[in-house]
């Protein structure tokens, strides 16, 4: 099952655990179930989850601050990573987790930049921002 982000989504300075919203079924993953901007697992067992976030521009805050991506399983963090300064894409390492039918996967971002120079980010919609899984 898999999904691609639809439309750009701003992540303003100071945003905490901003859920990525607006998803559609990813090509090659027919029958994916997306509910409440979460990917719903159909069968029980181990899965390998892939997640990639594409920004519309490089992450380059002037005075520090992090843009953190968190992969959630039923609301609990299973993987996290920060954008490197000067990059516009972040692929989380493949994550293997045990799931039950009906479990949910989602992605949230936190932007820790603040005054004196806040730095906004925008997640780009399309096939370069995705969340999917295969049986492990």
Biggest sheet overview: 6 strands, antiparallel
Task: Note poorly predicted spans.
Answer: none
The beta-strand count equals 13
The number of helical elements comes to 0
**Mean of the pLDDT scores?**
96
Strand content: over 45%
Whole-angstrom Rg: 15 Å
Q: How much helical structure, as a percent, in the residues?
A: under 10%
Report, as a whole number of angstroms, the end-to-end distance.
Answer: 13 Å
Q: What letter string, H or E per element, gives the SSE order?
A: EEEEEEEEEEEEE
Helix and strand arrangement:
Layout: E1 2-5, E2 9-11, E3 18-19, E4 23-25, E5 33-35, E6 38-40, E7 45-59, E8 67-73, E9 76-82, E10 87-99, E11 104-111, E12 121-123, E13 126-135
Antiparallel strand pairs: 1-4, 1-13, 2-12, 3-11, 5-6, 6-11, 7-10, 7-13, 8-9, 8-11
């Amino acid at each position: 099952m898999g999904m691609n982000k639809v439309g750009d989504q701003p992540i303003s300075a100071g945003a905490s655990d901003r859920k990525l919203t607006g998803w559609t079924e990813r090509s090659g993953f027919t029958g994916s179930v997306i509910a409440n901007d979460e990917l719903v697992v159909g069968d029980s067992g181990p899965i390998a989850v892939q997640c990639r976030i594409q920004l519309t521009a490089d992450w380059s805050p002037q005075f520090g601050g992090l843009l953190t991506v968190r992969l959630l399983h039923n609301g609990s963090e299973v993987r996290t990573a920060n954008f490197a300064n000067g990059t516009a894409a972040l692929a989380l390492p493949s994550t293997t987790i045990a799931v039950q039918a009906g479990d949910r996967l989602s992605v949230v971002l936190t932007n820790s930049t603040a005054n004196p120079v806040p730095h906004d980010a925008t997640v780009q919609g399309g096939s370069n921002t995705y969340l999917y899984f295969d049986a492990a």
